[in-house]
Structure formats: C-alpha cells, structure tokens
Amino acid sequence: MTQDRATIMPLGDSALLVRFSDTLDDEANRRAVSFAHALENDAIEHVLDVVPSLVSVLVRYDPRKANPTRLAGELSLRLRANPVVGDNHLHRIDVHFGGEDGPDLEDVASKLDLSTQAFVEHHNAASLRVLTTGFAPGFVYCGFHPEHMVVPRRASVRPLVTAGSILFAAGQTAIAATDIPTGWHVIGRTSFRNFDPARMPPTSLRVGDLVEFVSAG
C-alpha cells in the first residue's frame, strides 16, 4: 500500500514497515521521524512498539488482537494527516578532537583538502539532527553535513572503538555509546554517554533532536 510517497508493507507476522524512500535523504528522514512521533503521541490500539529508522518506521503489533489490513488502513489515514514537525531539544556535546582521541582526524581533513582546525570549524559550524538511533545500544546517527564535508567510510574496520568515540563518514557524525567495531573514521571523543541501562529511558537523545558539537580543546 502506498500513500503520499510512503509504502506500507508487512514484515513478518507481527509488524508493518512504513517506508518513505528507498534512499537516505533529509526529507524522507524528517517524515519518518515525524510519523513515529505522531504514532507515539496518539497510540493505535494493539500496537506494541514504534521504531523509527533512517527512512522508515517499524510498527509492531499484537497478532492475536490486531488485524494487519485494518492497521495498514489506519496508518494510511495517519499518513495523510501527518505534517513534518519541527526539531526537538538542542543538546550541546563537548568533543576532544584529534590526537589519541581522534586518530583519523588528520586523514579525514586531508581528504577534504582542509587543515585539521578548518575541518573542526566546518564540522561544528551548524547543529545536526539525530537521524536515528540503533546498531548498538545508544548509538546515534547525526546529519547531514553539506556535500563538501562528505567522505566514505574507512577501507578497513577497526575491531574496537571505545564508548564516547565521535565517528565521521557519509555526511554524518555518529556517537558511540558502547564499545563497538566500526568502519567509520574516529575523529574525537566525548565524555557524554547516550546509554545508561539503569536510566529510564536508557538514552538521552531522541530522533529529531538537535546536536551541537563543540570543541573542548
């Protein structure tokens, strides 16, 4: 089922996927985030979970109680009335760029024909939007950087980067909240942690929030 450039499709026997695009772009991400927020604020009966991703929203439902065809129809109606909402809270995150904290900073700056200082200035010039969370607990994708600040991921994967690592690739900056392997460039480190299993909710950043990165020295 398609509605306003969104496609609603079954995913297994207990979920529907609302996809806004086949490729990542700002408009599709904003629509996915907005739609997820709308479903969270006005819940549909028998829906168990709403999970936004980069360009889609996963809607999990109770298969014993919900009719998937009827649910798809309700989602279609919600799509017609779904405006793109504004951004949410602004979070300021201090980052130590370069050195041992950011071993890939010089290489990334060189790829962009920038000095490391100029790269940091460009990187921090504008706040970024939380596009989605996932991959690992508390992991945050922030975007988008302008075209002149886009580099591909590393050719090889680092087997481990520590929590708080600031990662850069594909026009985005990511924040690692746990120790993980990654193919992203490590450009800095922050003391901010976006995952605490003892906290409810366990993450501080929400999709749609704005993140302002600030050089801590």
Automatic annotation (TrEMBL):
Carboxyltransferase domain segment(s): 6-205
ATP-binding recorded as keyword: yes
Record bears the keyword DNA repair: no
Recorded GO MF terms: ATP binding; hydrolase activity
Swiss-Prot/TrEMBL keywords: ATP-binding, Hydrolase, Nucleotide-binding
Pfam family, one: CT_C_D
Domain of life: Bacteria
InterPro entries assigned: CT_C_D (IPR003833), Cyclophilin-like_dom_sf (IPR029000), PxpB (IPR010016)
PANTHER family xref list: 5-OXOPROLINASE SUBUNIT B
Name of this chain's protein: Allophanate hydrolase subunit 1
Lineage summary: Bacteria, Pseudomonadati, Pseudomonadota, Alphaproteobacteria, Hyphomicrobiales
